[in-house]
Amino acid sequence: MFYLYVLAAAAVALVVWRMRAPADLRINRRYLARFMTDSTGRGPRKVELVRIPVWLKPSELEEHAYFHVEADFTDGSTQQVTVQILYPLESLQREREQQQKPLMAEDFNVMQNPARLGGHSQDDAAKFKEDPLRELTAERKLIEQKTAQFDREVEQLRCLNSCGNLFPRLIAYDRAQHIAILTPVGGKRLDTALHESPPDARLQLLQDVLVRLAVFHASSGSLPLDLPSKGNHTEQVIRAQLANALPSLVSASVLAEQADVSELLVATAPIWSAGANFSGIRLADPSPRALYVYNGVVRPLNYGQLRRDITLLDAIELLCDPAVPLTPEEEFDLFKHYLSARFPAEDDQSAVLVELLRLAVYYRLVLAQHLAEYFAVLERSHDKRGSLSIPYWNNDARRRNLAALHFYLAHDSDLVRLKQALQ
What we know:
By secondary structure, the chain is an alpha+beta fold. The protein has helices spanning 2-20, 29-32, 90-107, 122-129, 134-160, 190-196, 199-219, 235-251, 261-267, 269-272, 312-319, 328-342, 346-380, 385-388, 395-409, 416-421; strands spanning 46-51, 64-72, 78-86, 170-174, 179-182, 188-189, 279-282, 291-294, 297-300, 307-310. It has a five-stranded antiparallel sheet, with helices on one face. A three-stranded antiparallel sheet has the order 6-8-9. A two-stranded antiparallel ribbon has the order 7-10. The radius of gyration is 26 Å and the shape is globular. The longest helix is centred in the C-terminal third of the chain and has 35 residues, at 346-380. It is built from 16 helices and ten strands.
């Protein structure tokens, strides 16, 4: 009996330990010694793992987990890496959970499911006739599919590593374990770092990433990557989004109440084709939520979902995000900093600046629409304010967004009608 109590206590201790340190048990000293050694060829004597916070949309699956690993060695040295782990059955698990939810709800009230009062239902009987290995077969096929996708993404990273130093470098790829070892990106997201840094350090972080982003945009056009362009910003897409945004901006008093929406849409015509000549490889998500800081260097973590689109939008989505506390003047200077790194000739910089600012006006108008709708929902849902809250979406972000719109439009005489309509 004593031994049973000991085993039970050990099991509870293990569960508590796993809850306090939720990391993949495969990432231990013995495993990391295959890829990390000191000057004497020995593996690490101590390993610390920190889960990297990854921002996901509610509809996205957390198929990949990322850890910042710090390893200490017997020779006194320390090494850091980022470990990426693929969990290929995540989508199948969610699908099964969704299928089970209605059944669980019915079981709590037998009056809603009288068929179960008499024993097995017809659905249960049908399940006995199914192939008992059907679920295992589905799992195997999904694992093969996800492994092949991970293979392609890792090969893509190898290709990206030959083009500048924007992305982390691949150190090793364990295909059997679905694990990739990368140079460290750190465990702090850029949006957090920007709000914790003094103004000078904040600008330095942004200048650094903009330069490396510009080098990547300028040199990645020849990379042999087959990337999707679905949903890219064509003239039709931009015009449709503006047509959707302008009416809500009038009702939200961002634009004058007497403004003619159809007339204003025509006035935005110079924006529709802006940046069309600068199509290339874009980041999966250039917002500060998807970038990470390590030793003062900012890098994206997602290297597997790149696409082809207007590359200027990467700089715009980075600098104009509500999480970035910049004045319009600072934004403007950083835009020029990006262009000077990407286009050596000053004449080219001036010409592209006009298109970049027009795309920034487009982004700011669409953002103003989302901010207006967001605050309208908050006003109607006082009791849900906490659950609906989005970090950095506040009145200061709305004020800065409108100030930037006024500032950009003052630099473009072709958009004077739009400027006149702003409140």
